[in-house]
Amino acid sequence: MFRQSSPSIFIIMLVATVQMTRVISAVDSKEEPALELYMHDILGGSSPTARPITGLLGNIYDGQVPFAKQIGFIPPQGGVAIPNANGAIPTVNGVNGLPLGTGLGGTAFAGNNQNPPQTQLGPDGLGLGFGTITVIDDILTSSHELGSQTLGKAQGVYVASSADGTTQMMAFTAMIEGGEYNDNLNFCGVYKIGSTVSYLSVTGGTGKFKNACGIAEVRPLISSGQHVIDGAETLLRIIVHLKY
């Protein structure tokens, strides 16, 4: 009768243990397929989804400065723009009057990033937009078109967190519509304006996303313009990688 040697039995048991460990690890991680969202952040116009509420730009936007009269950011006919502390004339988008550097698009609102304008500085030497808090109720869709299937809303805030206006600290909840158990995902992190990709942390969720964690890749896209709006839109593609 053939009898297996002790070393052979040991090797078989070792291989079986390794395979079992891989199976258990795969079950424990419970990594789901990536979730793809398109976020439409619109400032100004007739149907905005975002509004600066605090900070110097927020005060100008809402006409909250003393004796303010809401005339927008573009000087009235015959008016003269007040220079910045460095002597530069504030630069705005001529279409909707929003100051460059506002929102997630930064200087992209000018429509020409080859020679971006100088950051508008305050008397303290910091950018005028530094510290501005913008509240959002952005639309989430299944594709890049604003008129495509709506998946839900992204509600929260982003804060101009760098003096030169290149980053926005974002904290928002993606509320997915149609979920039976209030399916929400929470995001937090720094979005880098002008970067090809930024990363946000998934800090938790509710409903089917309960105990979820992971990361989200955020990439800016250029809107196709098929859905005409009169505000300044920043289109973000968000790829979410989840684990439980």
UniProtKB/TrEMBL annotation:
Q: What's in the keyword line of the UniProt record?
A: Apoplast, Secreted, Signal
Chief localization: secreted
Signal peptide as annotated in the record: 1-26
Q: Name one GO cellular component term.
A: apoplast
Q: What Pfam families does the entry give?
A: Dirigent
Q: Where in the cell is it found?
A: Secreted, Extracellular space, Apoplast
Record bears the keyword Transferase: no
Instruction: Please name the GO terms of the biological process aspect recorded for this protein, alphabetically.
Output: phenylpropanoid biosynthetic process
> Could you tell me what this protein does?
Dirigent proteins impart stereoselectivity on the phenoxy radical-coupling reaction, yielding optically active lignans from two molecules of coniferyl alcohol in the biosynthesis of lignans, flavonolignans, and alkaloids and thus plays a central role in plant secondary metabolism.
Q: How does it assemble?
A: Homodimer.
Entry's family note: Belongs to the plant dirigent protein family.
| PANTHER family hit by this protein | DIRIGENT PROTEIN, DIRIGENT PROTEIN 24-RELATED
- The protein here is known as Dirigent protein
What species was this sequence derived from?
A: Fagus sylvatica
